[in-house]
Amino acid sequence: MTPYQAPDPYDPNMPAAYLPQGFLPPVQPITGADYDPYTDPLVPPPNMGVSGWFDRVGGVLKRSWKSIAGILAVTHVLPGLLFTLAVGVLTAVFAASMVSNLSTYNTSSRRGELPFDGGVFVLVILAAIVVGLISYMIQMVGYAGATYATTREAAGIPVRLGEALGYGFRRGMGLFGWQLLVGLLCVVAVLLCFLPALYVIPATALVGPIFLFERQRPLARSFEIFNRNLGRVLGRLALVLVALIVGSILTNLVESVVQAVVGGGVGGLSGGNSDAVEALSLGAGAIVAVLFSTIIQLPITMVQFAGILVTYTEQRGHEGANTARLVAELN
After folding, report:
1. pLDDT at position 27
2. Which of 31, 45, 151, 298 is deepest in the core (most CB within 10 A)?
């Protein structure tokens, strides 16, 4: 009996019906003697420049957009919507506390002053910080899961949503801790002087993929890569920044239009019913506008994710890494 031999997905004469269904193999083998760095699906070759970067970013989005969109919808858009609603409710509680005391102020010697409840304000701020940290933690789970799915799909390995999210939960907590440290470092740099922040922010941009792939010294390694390849890394991050700026302008425009349609302007509060209705209308308009902008942010976040990931893989390509090695490192 002839032993079974698995079909070769790279054989151009092999009928499609005999190939594994559900995913396509990479255009060229990613390991072995036939490996060609110019066709690596995730790692740009060292001498292709920015064209190789653009090609790999486009390849990531074309090949893995369904996985990335699904993961980010669950871990970025949904928590963002819940965070927006939570902040809206907390703001409404604070506003209701102010409005409830407004009639008392209008009939007292302090007429015309806006009441301020410091205790309620502090509770609202603390609750918003807690909700924001939880939302950010979930986003890091999504970032890790999207990295896992994108890398394996680049090697022709199918990835289920649950599998990617499982990986994200395993690695996302550690990633959250490092990114929180990066955020605090950037805040300190901004407070000390704005110029150091212009260095610290891009120098720490690769902490996420370094933590997921290399697992050691992500902060120091990010500074090391940035300092050694300053022009190349800074140029790629500048392209990502341009995409973010364009996306921010678009979302702000949509948010302003929606808020103007739903909410309208508001005058000074005087305690009358019309003012209360106007204030509620403004709050509803703001919430709906932010909900729309959160959804619009999904494709922008996808571009940002792909850009930073390929910026990292490009630097690893200069060190001899390829897609097969990156897949092995994730595992």
Report:
1. 43
2. 151
